[in-house]
User: Fold this.
Amino acid sequence: MSSVPKDKHQLLDAINTIFPKLMVDYRTVPVELARLCAIEGNVKGTVISVSDTVAYLIGWGQLVLKWHRLTSQNQDVDFPETGFKWNQLGLLAQHFQHHYRDWSYVALLNELDATVNQLNELINSLSNDELYGADWYETYTLGRMIQFNTSSPMKNMRTKVRRFIREQC
Assistant:
């Protein structure tokens, strides 16, 4: 399979291949280490925790769901998010981390699981043509935008979390 999904089946497969592996890694991290800042952050020179990586994935997943909800209602979307530009993704990552900073590690994992379930439901509710048949945002299809913000960052976070586990656990 190509690393970039080209259809609905490949998109679901990309998400549902990496996500269970990522969750096994997350569940390997002891709760008492989940807030230890020892992972390279999204902003140069910052360090984040395992919990922050979960918040990042929840934040992007929820944004994808919001984008689809708003466009389905013929409402305008501030891409990537209100108050942020595409060249401010590090700041947006910090926004996600701040938003979820008081959540317990278990609650974060449950929310990530629920978010990925919602994303799977969304993808399953759409046809291959709706996902990949036309540009949805600028030159990107909806399927590509979903992949950019789900399976791709999941792979990236899994690498960081596995390094954390090797070094800290």
Notes: The first strand starts at residue 39 and ends at 40.
